[in-house]
Specification:
The protein is an alpha+beta fold. Helices cover about 40% and strands about 20% of the residues. It has a 5-stranded antiparallel β-sheet. It is flat and about 90 Å long.
C-alpha cells in the first residue's frame, strides 16, 4: 500500500483523536464545576430551571426550586453554577449596578407630548373615562373601498 491510500485513514484517525480529547476536556471542566457546588449557591439545570442548592449527595443534589419546594436532581443535570450576583439578577431581577440615568416613566407618551398637548388631550377626553369605539363619521366611510375588499385584493382564488 502506498502512503497516498493510507493518508485519508490517518487524517480520519487524527480528527477522531482530537474530537475525543476536546470532549474529555469539557467533561472534566463540567465535573470540576459541579464539585465547586456548595449549599446555598444558585444553579441552572440543563432544562433551564434556576434553583438553590440545599444538600449535596454522592450522585444527587437537593435543590430548592421555590420557597419550601425541594426536588432531588442528578448531579449531571446541573448545567451551570452561578455566582450570587448573576443568580439574583436572573431570578429576583435585582441589579448590582445602580445607574445615574433618569428613570423612564411607564407612560411613553409623556416623553413625546408637550405640556400643552397633554392639557388639550385631557380636555378632549370624556369625563367618565370611557373610550368611544363606534364608527366616527361618514367622511371616514367615503375613503374605504365600496366592494369590501382591501387595496390589491381580487376575486381570484
Amino acid at each position: 500500500m502506498s502512503l497516498v491510500t493510507l493518508l485519508p485513514f490517518i487524517v480520519l484517525i487524527g480528527a477522531m483523536f482530537l474530537m475525543t480529547r476536546s470532549a474529555k476536556r469539557k467533561q472534566q471542566q463540567a465535573a470540576s464545576m459541579r464539585n465547586e457546588m456548595q449549599p446555598g449557591t444558585g444553579v441552572r439545570t440543563v432544562g433551564g430551571m434556576y434553583a438553590t442548592v440545599k444538600e449535596i449527595g454522592d450522585d444527587t443534589v437537593l435543590l430548592e426550586v421555590a420557597p419550601g419546594v425541594h426536588a432531588v436532581y442528578a448531579k449531571n443535570s446541573i448545567g451551570a453554577v452561578l455566582s450570587d450576583e448573576e443568580y439574583n439578577r436572573i431570578v429576583h431581577g435585582e441589579s448590582a449596578e445602580t445607574s445615574d440615568l433618569p428613570a423612564v416613566p411607564d407612560d411613553a407618551s409623556a416623553l413625546t407630548e408637550s405640556t400643552d398637548d397633554a392639557a388639550d388631550a385631557a380636555e378632549a377626553a370624556p369625563a367618565d373615562g370611557k373610550i368611544d369605539l363606534g364608527k366616527k363619521d361618514e367622511a371616514d366611510d367615503a375613503a374605504a373601498p365600496k366592494d369590501g375588499k382591501a387595496d390589491g385584493e381580487s376575486d381570484a382564488k
